[in-house]
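TL;DR need structure tokens for one chain.
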Amino acid sequence: MQTISASEARAAAGVEPGFQKPFLPPTAYVAAGLWLAILVGLGLYLSCLQGEGVPQGLSPGERTFTLEQDAKRTEFGWHAVATVRDDAGKSRRVQVSFDDCERFLARDKVVSYALFSEFEPDREMRYLQQGVCARARLTRPDRCERTGLTGTMLSVRAWCMDRIEARDGKGSALLAAVLLGDRLRLEEGGLYDDMKAVGMAHMVAVSGAHLSVVSAFVMMVLKRIGMPKRAVVCVIMGFFAAYALFTGMSIPVLRAALMSSVLIGAVWGGRRGSPLAALSVCVCLLLAANPYNAFSLSFLLSVGSTLGIILFTGLFETWLGKALGGRFPTVCNTVALTMAANLVIFPVVASVFARLPLLSPVANLIAAPVFSVLLIGGLAALALCAAAPPLGSLALAVCAGAADLFCSIMHALAQVPYASLFSSWSAGASTAVSVALMALIWRVWPNPRAKTVRRALCAAAAALLVFLLVAPHMAGDEIVMLDVGQGDAFLIRSQGRTLLVDTGNQETMLSQALARHGANRLDALLVSHHDDDHYGSLPVLKSALAGGKVYVARETFTTEDRNNDLLLEAAKQTVGADDVRGLSFGDVLQVGRFTCTVVWPHAFCDKGGNADSLCLRVEYDGDGDGSCDFTALFTGDAEADQISAMVEEGTVGDIDVLKEGHHGSRAGMTPELASALRPEVVLISVGADNDYGHPAPETVETLEAAGAQVFRTDENGDVSCRFRANTLEVRAMR
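>> reply
TL;DR here they are.
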């Protein structure tokens, strides 16, 4: 297949090579103004709607729903966004959920008895910004017969899904996502986590990139047969519509099809001067068609990355070309594209995803040719499956094999140390930095000499290297309670060594917390037990745990329980099966000057649940004289019965720092136990306004009555306990 470089594409679009600054058309200011006006106006309107509950007209009863997206499966059943007519005939968008049944696809019509309810207060605004007004619980939904053109395309898409799903492995899941927009199996084997870690999440979502690759191939074929240019444009736009229908006609797909149509029309239909003007027209059309796009994260990412590529790729590519003396043009092109796109969307990547993928240019360089082959080859293989099944099956197997190889490469990259860095940038700060940097580049439009570019790149690389290698050794000896919401996550670090105890289940909160403390590299993770709020964020640690270990209770491997299996599977996907290790009573982990000894359990009595939490006695020897200066106790979700047993055994006594068991639950502490432990500092990790009533007021009162100073993440945020030979200093984030 013929490929076109970014510089050739820009030349075809009328953008001069080198340092000519792109022209900002009036439509760009119109689009920006419209976007801002909708954000403010619609935001004020939605704030008035908040708290009003289920709209009138959505009474319980049998209704027909049209799904706007493929149904997604979770541990609580199936979920999707759908449209439904209320009692007055007005179309409403709702979040539907239903129990296990056949899978429904985007544009399927479903008939079911429905019971409508409002969203939780902390989630309501997020749904309102998507135009979703209520939640609908469906009872025994039935799919309507697929008829007409839409029904035919749905049946074809379902048939293609069956062909791909007949094959196991990550490669099959990747093909389904790339070819059909089917993301159901992306989480299998940690595929999506690998893609996010190396900055390739965009590859597994049908977008303008998919349409551009396929349209380039179709365009080449049509031009070869001599079709006039304007006719080619019409055919390509018709193809976009068909491909959008084929991949589910979800809102992101329709948005990508419209943007690609306008851009292709501008470039190839006679208006060769301004892809930026075409992008501005797209933004105006999409906002006019659906004002809720103004709040859409995917819309922001799509427009922002496209804007960055149009404005800055030529400049960055020229800089890199100078630095490399004109050699390796493909490398310069790929890195420049990545830099330009990420410059604009940096605020989203830094504040929403809380990760900065350093290996994104490398991953994109590898993915560029593979992506085209998988997309074109996969579609051809599916067509061949219909015409000549044996040959089609063979071709699909070849494509799946190539996709498997690509997934293995991405998995290897995701496990490279520092493949991605954690970020704690706020949306405001990251936006200010991004806008200031773009304004500076736009104002100066620098044309440095090759030597200057090389020196700047070397200085940036040296600064990053110093930060990554030196920062861990500057942290000192400390125990840090990380604010991860309703879950546990604690850092123990000393002399450049770092142990994380539990992860919580909020990936973004964990990433931001680790970034606040510069913990981009972990030597090991200890998971106290199999509850999701203690290991649910494991996948985000792939790069940070590269070469490290995951420790669990030894009986987790031998106790038959689904929760144990899920914990072990998550751990193996993160560090590999060989680096998942078991710990038993009496085992010791050394973390610099901290000696961590397992003091519970002797054996499982709760199938790996709360009562079987791995508990650690952590002793600190600050002056290296062999005697313990301070002692801490980590209890997981163990409660008073288990901790009292440790005291009676003599494995735990008077301590200085207590990680209170089970988030400060009522059963976690008694006055007698508090008197026996006599902690000076108590750390309680809880989410604000949680549904469990943690921590129990009587537990806090009991600990304070025993003379302890109680710190809790919902009120104090991160809390650092810093140790020296004779002093213990506690610092809270707020």
